[in-house]
Design goal:
Elements lengths: L3 E2 L2 E2 L10 E8 L2 E5 L5 H11 L5 E16 L1 E2 L9 E2 L3 E19 L2 E11 L5 E6 L4 E13 L3 E7 L6 E7 L7 E8 L5 H12 L4 E10 L16 E10 L8 E6 L5 E5 L7 E11 L4
Antiparallel strand pairs: 1-2, 3-14, 4-11, 5-8, 5-10, 5-11, 6-7, 8-9, 9-10, 12-13, 14-19, 15-16, 15-19, 16-17, 17-18
Length: 289
């Protein structure tokens, strides 16, 4: 069993000195309807391609899935990694999408989707997890908000620190329109609220919204919750909040699934819930008109 410390999980590889990789961008929210019968991952990639970009963060708002192929967090059986994926699970549809987020980019030069979703199954149970490409859109389609990221290359590759595949954003040619934004990879052990606050300061944002964000956390610790999340970590399905010096007391709300398959939600304590493997964070500046 892999040990967790106050700074997060103990990963097998060398830790990069810079714990936040942040890329400035401009973005806007684009509502899309994903068609019935399509593969969810492919449909998201198509929607992003039609916007003329290769990178985006996405929020899943509702709709149905016909079949869900997914996993939840697990301990690594051979101890070579701090955390790993469970065996593949299935949830027969139709299931109702509750919430979700996805990162869109490339892996080995081809389009790639990383998605975490929560849903209610036919028995009325709330489930969640990391989706595999076999997941398909249900008869009513899926509604989503896409935040395109022109000028950003989001490449998925094995991370030397965690030995797991993660997205890392890099600047590239191109400029977008819309609000100022920063897309970032937050590395293991970081306090997510502190990381978001630092990014705001570096970008000159007085206030920013957390949108289209997913990843993994140790815990998270929800103060007052009756049940702690089972380790080694949780897959974070969504994170929302407003941060920055003009945001007042900042809170982050998360929805996450643990290694028992239990979905947890609410305001979490970021100082006691460090990033486990990675968080794909999108901050969008809020400007008072």
């Amino acid at each position: 069993m892999t040990a967790a410390t106050a700074a997060g999980l103990r990963h097998p590889g060398p830790a990069a000195p810079e714990r936040i990789v942040a890329v400035p961008a401009r973005t806007r929210a684009v509502a899309v309807d994903l068609p019935a019968g399509a593969g969810l991952a492919a449909a998201l990639q198509d929607a992003v391609h039609r916007l003329g970009v290769t990178a985006a963060q996405v929020e899943l708002l509702g709709g149905t899935l016909r079949e869900v192929s997914y996993c939840i967090p697990a301990y690594c059986a051979d101890g070579s990694r701090a955390a790993h994926y469970s065996a593949t699970r299935g949830s027969a549809g139709p299931v109702a999408v509750v919430a979700g987020a996805a990162g869109i980019g490339t892996r080995d030069g081809a389009p790639f989707t990383h998605a975490h979703v929560a849903w209610v199954d036919r028995a009325g149970s709330l489930l969640g997890g990391h989706l595999w490409p076999a997941t398909t859109v249900g008869a009513t389609g899926v509604q989503a908000l896409v935040f395109p990221l022109a000028g950003v290359c989001n490449e998925s590759a094995e991370d030397p620190e965690t030995l797991l595949p993660v997205f890392t954003p890099r600047p590239t040619a191109g400029t977008g329109d819309g609000a100022r934004a920063v897309t970032a990879r937050v590395r293991p052990g970081a306090d997510l609220l502190a990381a978001a606050t630092r990014i705001c300061a570096d970008a000159g944002f007085r206030r920013a919204m957390v949108r289209g964000t997913l990843g993994s956390l140790v815990g998270p610790l929800f103060p007052g919750a009756g049940r702690a999340a089972a380790g080694p970590c949780t897959e974070v399905i969504s994170v929302r909040g407003v941060v920055g010096p003009d945001a007042g007391p900042s809170e982050l709300h998360a929805l996450a699934v643990d290694s028992d398959g239990v979905v947890h939600g609410g305001v979490f304590d970021p100082a006691a819930s460090p990033v486990a493997v990675t968080v794909e964070l999108l901050l969008i500046e809020v400007v008072d008109r």
